[in-house]
Specification:
Blueprint lengths: L5 E7 L5 H9 L6 E7 L6 H5 L7 E5 L9 H12 L4 E5 L4 E2 L3 H11 L5 E9 L5 E4 L6 E2 L1 H8 L11 E4 H6 L12 H8 L5 E12 L12 H24 L6 H24 L6 H11 L7 H16 L1
Parallel strand pairs: 1-2, 1-4, 2-3, 6-10
Antiparallel strand pairs: 4-9, 5-10, 6-7, 6-9, 8-10
Helix pairs in contact: 5-9, 8-9, 9-11
């Protein structure tokens, strides 16, 4: 592979939007990058789509067996270690869109904030046809770890992963991306893991996250997938309790308020998700889950009870 500053690692499974995604990457005004497309032993014609493009920045690899069906993070980490040899890496998906100035804007930020290990493009949410549903709130160009963590759970940021740019060696030094089943919450905690030196953001929305219902993250009817996501939610809950407990920051009134907000909002996020998966569990199993989560330092009986009440009120409304 030639030496470049950025690598887009694209884990490909479906072709519905793949051509548009590839076009958006190749159309970047900043040209110094590679695009490594990792065909995850897809039953669809990924190679046929890739063959439409005559561009020496594309590298196509087909895995011998499917990796991402259950362990999507395994596929991310495979690409991180096999395909990413540049200074920065972007874990692209097969259905999202990058604005043409995505990489040039990111590159400006890398020069301005050389110590950060994580950069993020402001995000648009679109439907399957690319129509914008909403745009997430702007962030300060530079955020401390605490401010980034608090904003991650404030409900005004679109949760995505492909709009982040990671310093490659820093991720590898951490042992790769954090692995939860179905990558559920793995994206969020992996970004928190990389935020120790702060996070740089584009102020303009330069990335479009597509809500199509085709991703496994949108699947809710399978009991097996639901149980896998429940385990991931519980792993996330444990991880967040440890992360919050070990977080260090300057003791100011502003930071204390951010810290308390992070505890409150991340707890709400965890409880609401866990409760939403209760349908796949027996009463005894539900009790076991409750006993497991109440052991954590930041458990709140009143907060959990409120989320449970609101969930069942919504079910019977």
């Amino acid at each position: 592979m030639k030496e470049v500053k950025y690598t887009f690692c694209l884990a490909a499974w479906k072709i519905a939007f793949l051509e548009d995604t590839i076009k958006s990457i190749l159309n970047q005004t900043y040209r110094d990058f590679l695009l490594v497309i990792s065909d995850d032993c897809s039953p669809e014609d990924i190679k046929g789509i890739v063959s439409h493009f005559d561009d020496n920045r594309i590298i196509y690899i087909r895995n011998e067996k499917n990796i991402g069906g259950y362990n999507l993070v395994d596929h991310w980490n495979l690409q991180l270690n096999r395909d990413a040899h540049s200074e920065y890496v972007i874990m692209a998906s097969d259905d999202d869109i990058y604005d043409e100035d995505f990489l040039s804007t990111i590159d400006t930020l890398t020069a301005k904030y050389p110590k950060v290990d994580l950069l993020r493009a402001r995000c648009k949410n679109t439907d399957s046809k690319g129509i914008v549903n909403f745009i997430d709130d702007p962030s300060d160009e530079y955020q401390s770890e605490l401010k980034f963590a608090a904003d991650l759970y404030n409900g005004r940021h679109i949760r995505s992963f492909a709009n982040f740019v990671f310093k490659t060696e820093a991720v590898k030094h951490k042992g790769g991306f954090i692995n939860f089943p179905y990558a559920w919450y793995a994206d969020a905690v992996s970004t928190l893991m990389m935020a120790k030196n702060g996070v740089a953001h584009t102020t303009k929305p330069l990335f479009s996250y597509r809500s199509s219902g085709l991703a496994i993250s949108g699947t809710t009817k399978s009991e097996d997938i639901t149980r896998g996501k429940m385990e991931a939610a519980l792993m996330n809950y444990d991880w967040m309790n440890s992360y919050i407990g070990n977080m260090k920051f300057e003791q100011t009134a502003y930071n204390t308020n951010l810290y308390n907000t992070l505890i409150r909002n991340s707890r709400h996020d965890s409880y609401a998700t866990i409760i939403s998966y209760f349908w796949a569990y027996s009463l005894l199993e539900k009790i076991g889950i409750y006993k497991r989560i109440k052991k954590e330092t930041y458990f709140s009986k009143s907060s959990f009870g409120k989320e449970l009440f609101l969930f069942y009120m919504g079910k019977f409304a």
